Amino acid sequence: xxxxxxGWHIELExxxxxxxxxxxxxxxxxxxxxxxxxxxxxRHHTDSNQPRVGEEVAGARALNELAMQLLTKAHDEIDEASxxxxxxxxx
Length: 91
Known about the structure:
CATH superfamily: Rv1738
Order of helices and strands: EEEH
Strand order of the largest sheet: 1-2-3
Largest sheet: 3 strands, antiparallel
Number of domains: 1
Shape: elongated
Structural class: alpha+beta
CATH class: Alpha Beta
């Protein structure tokens, strides 16, 4: 049995200033829908300015939210296809 490989490309974009980093994440699914999320990080005034750390924190938060939205979408699709309420999908 052969399976077709499907690839997803996730885009992450960052906006930064001296104190804040904001990440925007987006994935376009094979069915044509797009899921978009945001994450943020704030540098404490006593910490040194390390933009990469802000990007990692904000990016991780955006990706975590993306994962949660994808789980919710899958759960809703299971319910719709089965015509009943299914068990929650856990991370």
